[in-house]
Specification:
Elements (H helix, E strand, L loop, with lengths): L3 E3 L3 H11 L5 H19 L5 E7 L4 E7 L3 E8 L6 H7 L4 E2 L1 E6 L6 E7 L7 E6 L2 E2 L3 H12 L4 E9 L1 H10 L4 E7 L2 E2 L5 E2 L5 H6 L3
Parallel strand pairs: 1-11, 4-5, 4-6, 4-8, 8-10, 9-10, 10-11
Antiparallel strand pairs: 2-3, 6-7, 12-13
Helix pairs in contact: 1-2, 2-3
């Protein structure tokens, strides 16, 4: 599918299997999600621009490469997207973090916005939206629409698991947004959950039901 990258590194696939396991408790679940997010971030940021500078090693002067260009913004979709932020910040500690609050109406399955707080220079940053589960795609698509309305121009979406329905919806609504996922699952069930999935990511992260 156009603009969709499946990150199938063995370490990510191994940890994702542990995340899926219903017997994995909240503490281990949180740590694993953070680790997978950090590993995925390595691939999501592959396109970052570099510039050449001169430094001095203990031996001599030399040319070296450092990051150039736009700054990074990480925007988790509350609540579950929060679980991916700390892993990413370990690789990009200078990134600013915004928050978008959306919940899914249990009757209509449509996303409802309840919170939005973003860096003031959102338009100057490369934005990475985090949401562990891309199910119907409604929440992610609405979050991206909101970011664009606030001035964001370069947006990527990063998920642990995606359903084909969600991928199709987001790519149709936002063909300019790259999507990165560690797994593409079979389908959605009648309740809008990904099959086989991992259940409710927010509940499993924070020990709620």
């Amino acid at each position: 599918m156009r603009n969709v990258t499946l990150i199938d590194h063995p370490l990510i696939q191994h940890k994702l299997s542990l995340i899926r396991d219903k017997d994995t408790g909240a503490k281990d679940f949180r740590e694993l999600v953070e680790e997978v997010a950090m590993l995925m971030c390595y691939e999501v940021t592959r396109g970052m621009q570099l510039e050449q500078i001169e430094i001095e090693t203990p031996i001599c002067k030399t040319k070296a490469k450092v990051l150039a260009g736009k700054k990074v913004g990480i925007v988790p979709i509350l609540r579950a997207g929060l679980g991916m932020v700390d892993g990413m910040l370990k690789l990009i500690p200078a990134a600013k973090v915004g928050h978008i609050g959306l919940y899914r109406d249990p009757e209509t399955l449509k996303p409802v916005e309840y919170y939005c707080k973003l860096p003031p220079d959102i338009g100057e940053r490369d934005i990475i939206v985090t949401d562990p589960m891309l199910a119907t795609g409604g929440s992610s698509s609405d979050a991206i629409t909101l970011l664009k309305r606030k001035g964001a121009k370069n947006i990527k979406l990063m998920c642990l698991i995606a359903a084909p329905e969600g991928l199709k919806y987001v790519t149709e609504q936002h063909p300019d947004v790259e999507i990165f996922t560690a797994a593409i699952d079979e389908r959605l069930n009648d309740h809008g959950y990904i099959v086989p999935g991992l259940g409710d990511a927010g509940d499993r992260l924070f020990g709620t039901k």
